[in-house]
Amino acid sequence: MSPPAQAEVLVVGAGLAGLSAATRLAASGCDVHVLEAGRHAGGRLATERIDGFVVDRGFQVLNTGYPRAADLDLDALQLGWFERGAVVRVDGRAYRVVDPRHRPLALPALLTAPLGGVREKAALAAFSVLRGYGPVSALQRSPERTAEQALRSAGVGDAALERFLRPFLAGVLLESDLATSSHYLDLLWRSFVRGAIGLPAGGMQAVGEQLAGRLDGERLHLGTPVHTVAPGAVSVGGSTLRAEAVVVATDPATAARLLTTVTASAPREVTTHYHVLPGSPWPSPLIVLGQPDGRLVNSVVLTDAQPRYSPDGRALVASSSLARTAERDVREEVARAHDVTSGDLDHLTTITVTGAQPAAVPPLRLRSPVDLGDGVYVCGDHRDTPSIQGAMASGARAARAVLRRLRPSRL
Ligand SMILES: Cc1cc2nc3c(=O)[nH]c(=O)nc-3n(C[C@H](O)[C@H](O)[C@H](O)COP(=O)(O)OP(=O)(O)OC[C@H]3O[C@@H](n4cnc5c(N)ncnc54)[C@H](O)[C@@H]3O)c2cc1C
């Protein structure tokens, strides 16, 4: 159905930010329509089926420690869970580093893992306790620096930094210099300490589809790219659509093109190679971290966490690099990560996402303004943190700002 010529609110973009804003506005009685350029709801959370396998557009996970995860019906997503921890390989040997709060029997292995001495491990534990359970306000008042500076000054030591923290965080931040803001690291680490990470049975796109399902179908207009935005109007194809409020919820680069007052920070890129193995080589679902001299930041048997990603019990492996690698460049490394031969691996597909996340380097403004004036609003992960949490939180903030203007009595 075509969008109406006049609506109370138009939201441009059906990623998690736009959908979070739109569902809140609809729940408050606003006449809201969402205009989405692509063919699916969920934006960067996109999933396709290849030979029966559920393949996300790049390896990503849902972290239930994000405050905005409370907005989702997690049961309906039928999440399959990763264990909290990772496999670290040193000189070819695999060490399982698992959070002992959930697996007390894993404590001896953790204490003997080659991640530094007792003092360094205690420093990492203290860093985690402070981030996980300290007040957020105190964390955010601490001086901002880079993630690496913050970890070094916490005393975690070189071994833990290079073998565990750098590859683990590189896979999340999509940069390996750990130049990201320590204030973002604090929030991210808090979510890892407080939550679990999982994959929905239907793939990550199911998260966006769940939010979209809360809107009446005729309010979401797929395949509808917006060309220009002005106060009270957007242009779509050859037509102008009018609205009392316009919320731009696109990716950062498009937001900067549509809105002259918005600037986009550098985009982070990631390439993910998907392989099929006859079965999983591992006893439990853990991410295998890349090695300091390798090209991969991580490699993971997705079906260990979420068996529904496979049509027939074979294992689906996702291996990510920050450089744009070819499959032949990483095949041996993927095999070594899982202790299989490269002949066991069937290459399914390789996906590069160029604008996966905006950079979040210091000085980072954790909550950039969403109300640009004249009835124009902006949200998206570039307004908060480059994450599912940041996208959803910015959408919630934009909805509140719109309601302040249109429905002050509902706040
Ligand atoms: C490979 C990868 C791994 C990631 N891993 C994680 C992870 O593990 N954990 C985590 O928290 N985050 C992760 N992220 C980041 C997270 O996915 C994003 O931060 C979040 O989804 C951004 O949502 P958004 O709504 O701000 O933007 P988007 O999802 O980009 O949504 C913007 C929407 O606007 C639409 N649009 C663009 N231009 C127009 C236009 N002109 N007209 C109409 N519509 C338009 C787009 O099609 C899109 O649907 C990852 C991202 C990628 C790509």
Poorly predicted ranges (pLDDT <50, ≥5 residues)? Answer: none
Give the ligands present: flavin-adenine dinucleotide
CATH class of the largest domain: Alpha Beta
Residue share in β-strands = 25-35%
Give a count of the beta strands, DSSP E runs of length 2 or more: 20
- Look at the structure and give the mean pLDDT: 97
CATH superfamily of the largest domain: FAD/NAD(P)-binding domain
CATH third-level topology of the largest domain: FAD/NAD(P)-binding domain
From the helix content, strand content and strand pairing, which structural class follows?
alpha+beta
> What overall geometry do the principal axes of the alpha carbons give?
globular
Structure, explained:
The two termini are 32 Å apart. The protein has 3 domains: 6-45 and 204-265 and 361-410, FAD/NAD(P)-binding domain (3-Layer(bba) Sandwich); 47-81 and 198-203 and 268-357, Protoporphyrinogen oxidase, mitochondrial, domain 2 (Polyamine Oxidase, Chain A, domain 2, Alpha-Beta Complex); 115-194. By secondary structure, it is α+β, with helices and mostly antiparallel strands. The model has no long low-confidence stretch (mean pLDDT 97). α1 runs parallel beside α9 (205-212) and α1 (16-27) runs parallel beside α13 (388-406). Helix content is 32%, strand content 26%. Flavin-adenine dinucleotide (FAD) is lined by residues 12-18, 35-38, 43-45, 58, 60-61, 225-226, 249-251, 254, 270, 353, 356-357, 380-381, 386-389, 391.
